[in-house]
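hey can u check if this looks right to u? its 224 residues, i copy pasted from the old doc so theres a chance i mangled smth
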Amino acid sequence: MAASVAPFLCWEHCVWRQVPRRSPPRRRGAPRVAITGDIELPSTLGPENFVGRANGTIYWGIEGSDTDVLVLDESTAEFSTATLPEALWWPSHKGISRVVGGEDGVLRVIRLINNELKVFARRRPDSDDDDEWSLEMQLRLPEATLGLPGREESFFQQEAMIVSANTRYVLLTPSEETWLFSVELDTMRVERNHERNKYAGAAHPYKLPWPPALADPSRERGQD
């Protein structure tokens, strides 16, 4: 039963597994994770299931489910499920679907359908009708990427793939070869030369510790 497990969560870059409640006690300061309702959590949840983070919520696709996604509220550390319209979500979500937010608080779903990038928005997230979605923008990738450096005629014979996405842009590549390019979500402008297009993975800010750890010269001389 789902209620008999205490999940250990690892967000995007490692595998998530259920562990028994008899596992070692939670360390001080670690977040509590609760399961709300009768939710059957998958035995493993890898990075390929991660589909986005938006407005304080993390989303994972559920294998074999046509419209449901697994949801983690970051403020309460509680799991639940959400249902998306069939026109927005398919069982084969890997590499073709992402959930993102925005400064306006609107929830958006990015979809690749026959190499056409589509951005759907839920304009009234607090309304009674949560299924009221609209097509906000769309872009044909084969035509939009013509003339970009490194663009090959053999690209886009198969469905392209979403590498990463956030509130500002989506990073993509054709399936035939790793050829990264990005699309700005506010203007749908296609970009190839930006620094973000040089790394095939999600990027996160990193700060070096300060002050830096300095070696003691006298100690080093004493070891010689």
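The chain is about 5% helix and 35% strand.
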